[in-house]
């Protein structure tokens, strides 16, 4: 455990090493918040609710969505393909830690930094804009929201790691990865709630793992899910995590058999 | 003059061809990137159209007008990426010592760096953008005058000049500090604030967007001109601001080069 804690500390140091880049990265996340917040705020100027959301719910969705973009959708394992292509993986394989553990620790370090910075950013923005904020009526909601966010973090890490492992089969995975991330962001509800889409599209998206990253955790927080839908969202999330764990394990083993340590 | 033009045309052709060959060699990555861009465009458009099923207008703008703003944002964004992508990589050029080689070559360094990353595939994304723009224009309640079209074209050219100025400034920052790689991405993200008409933002932000952070001048002004909402004074102001940013960027670049210490050679 100590070695992972050391790695965690080193990851923090590395990310804060080039502070200007880190601050720019944080500022980038604010651009999405500002554009989407003002869009919804303007849309709700003349009407009390829109597409089944009232003003408080929708603006809270935008604010928490910004936090979840930082916590759930932030990931560092996109470097795995270059690690495979350049042979740097060989060095990692010789270390007394698991490869997935190595990246999971780096991922956790990045997410914890994002948590530390994203909360005050969103808080300051909310205060400046005097943004209304929805507070759940039941204490249990907060716990369920936390569980769902944690599940989302695990799920996103698995997907990102899986895309990284695809680097064993080709060195050009960054293009498909970009495409995948575009689809993921929209289907996850990381720009707009997916229930503003036609019912048929919602049904297709709900069958995919993406909405369990942002949309369902947020729907839990806003207490918009019935008990049955709540249970279904947790079961789907857990199901996807189990399926991806199984697939990852097998892809990793198959990939290692192909690995030729080129350049390493 | 003519021989200088021919020389630069030849350099442009060689570098663009090299860039295109790289893209063909990494076809899977290029195809994924292109598809991702087209999908992102399509998703945003679908959401916009979805929203307008529930509201009559956005700050007084009808659906085709808002789509026009979104298309102009895409045009400026894609155009700048196509033309100036090479300036994203100044930091890497410095780290690998290639920057020194470029400085010694008998061509303007900024031109050389700008065109070396030119992405011809970006041009393909202009096909859906052009198609949707034409569709939005046919749906406008009033016909667009020739004068408005002329103002639109001038303002798009001015927006490209300003985009170039920002790319040069970020390149100069890389030369000065070697750690401003993230600045280009913040520019890109700030530009996305222009996806929607700037009238949706607060008064203070609108003030920023037409002065120090001229996203509004770059993206909203052309659309306003096309809709007949921008005066000649607005056009003149935009061009003066474009000229100012261009001169400032050139001065900043020269100053960065004067302080450059050939760090990796």
Describe how the helices and strands are arranged.
The complex is a heterodimer of chains A (264) and B (265).
Chain A: H1 2-17, H2 19-43, E1 49-50, E2 53-54, H3 55-71, H4 80-86, H5 88-93, H6 99-129, H7 139-165, H8 174-187, H9 199-206, H10 215-221, H11 227-258
Chain B: H1 2-25, H2 27-51, H3 63-84, H4 90-95, H5 98-104, H6 109-115, H7 120-139, H8 146-177, H9 181-191, H10 203-209, H11 215-226, H12 232-259
Short description:
The complex is a heterodimer of chains A (264) and B (265). With 264 residues, chain A is mostly helical.
Instruction: Give the end-to-end Cα distance of chain A, rounded to a whole number of Å.
Output: 28 Å
What number is the mean pLDDT of chain B?
90
Number of E-type strands of chain B: 0
Task: Give the low-confidence spans of chain B.
Answer: none
Radius of gyration of chain A: 20 Å
- Approximately what portion of the residues of chain B adopt beta-strand conformation? under 5%
Rg value of chain B:
20 Å
Number of domains of chain B: 1
**Biggest β-sheet description of chain A:** 2 strands, antiparallel
Mean pLDDT of chain A, rounded to whole units?
89
Give the strand content of chain A: under 5%
Shape of chain A: globular
Number of strands of chain A: 2
Q: What is the succession of H and E elements of chain A?
A: HHEEHHHHHHHHH
Shape of chain B: globular
Proportion of residues in helical segments of chain A = over 70%
Task: Report how far apart the termini of chain B are.
Answer: 34 Å
Most residues in contact: chain pair: A-B, 40 and 42 residues
Strand order of the largest sheet of chain A: 1-2
């Amino acid at each position: 455990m100590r070695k992972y804690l050391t790695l965690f500390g080193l990851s923090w140091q590395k990310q804060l090493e080039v502070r200007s880049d880190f601050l720019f990265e944080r500022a980038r996340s604010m651009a999405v918040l500002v554009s989407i917040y003002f869009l919804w705020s303007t849309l709700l100027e003349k009407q009390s609710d829109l597409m089944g959301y009232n003003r408080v719910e929708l603006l809270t969705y935008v604010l928490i969505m910004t936090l979840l973009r930082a916590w759930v959708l932030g990931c560092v394992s996109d470097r795995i393909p270059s690690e495979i292509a350049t042979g740097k993986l060989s060095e990692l394989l010789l270390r007394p830690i698991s490869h997935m553990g190595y990246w999971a620790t780096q991922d956790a370090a990045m997410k914890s930094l994002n948590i530390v910075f994203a909360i005050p950013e969103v808080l300051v923005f909310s205060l400046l804009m005097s943004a209304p904020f929805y507070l759940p009526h039941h204490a249990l909601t907060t716990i369920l929201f936390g569980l769902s966010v944690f599940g989302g973090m695990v799920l996103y890490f698995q997907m990102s790691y899986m895309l990284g492992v695809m680097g064993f089969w080709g060195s050009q995975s960054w293009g498909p990865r970009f495409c995948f991330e575009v689809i993921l962001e929209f289907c996850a509800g990381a720009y707009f709630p997916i229930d503003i889409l036609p019912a048929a599209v919602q049904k297709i998206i709900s069958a995919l793992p993406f909405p369990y990253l942002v949309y369902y955790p947020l729907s839990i927080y806003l207490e918009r899910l019935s008990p049955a839908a709540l249970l279904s969202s947790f079961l789907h999330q857990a199901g996807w995590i189990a399926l991806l764990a199984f697939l990852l394990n097998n892809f990793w083993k198959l990939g290692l058999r192909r690995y030729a340590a080129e350049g390493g | 003059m003519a021989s200088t033009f021919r020389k630069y045309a030849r350099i442009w052709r060689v570098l663009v061809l090299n860039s295109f060959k790289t893209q063909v060699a990494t076809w899977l990555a290029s195809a994924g990137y292109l598809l991702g861009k087209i999908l992102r465009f399509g998703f945003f458009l679908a959401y916009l159209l979805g929203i307008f099923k529930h509201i009559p207008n956005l700050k007084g703008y009808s659906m085709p007008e808002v789509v026009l703003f979104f298309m102009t944002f895409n045009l400026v964004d894609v155009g700048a990426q196509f033309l100036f992508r090479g300036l994203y990589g100044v930091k890497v050029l410095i780290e690998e010592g290639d920057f020194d080689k470029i400085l010694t070559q008998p061509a303007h360094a900024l031109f050389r760096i700008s065109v070396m990353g030119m992405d011809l595939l970006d041009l393909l994304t202009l096909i859906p953008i052009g198609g949707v723009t034409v569709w939005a224009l046919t749906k406008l309640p009033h016909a667009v005058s020739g004068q408005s079209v002329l103002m639109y074209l001038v303002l798009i050219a001015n927006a490209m000049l300003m985009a170039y100025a920002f790319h040069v400034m970020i390149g100069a920052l890389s030369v000065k500090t070697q750690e401003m790689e993230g600045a280009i991405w913040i520019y890109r993200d700030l530009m996305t604030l222009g996806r929607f008409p700037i009238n949706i933002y607060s008064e203070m932000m609108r003030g920023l967007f037409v002065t120090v952070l001229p996203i509004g001048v770059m993206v909203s002004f052309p659309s306003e001109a096309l809709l007949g909402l921008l005066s000649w004074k607005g056009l003149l102001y935009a061009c003066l601001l474009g000229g100012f940013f261009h001169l400032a960027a050139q001065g900043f670049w020269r100053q960065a080069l004067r302080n450059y210490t050939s760090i990796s050679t």
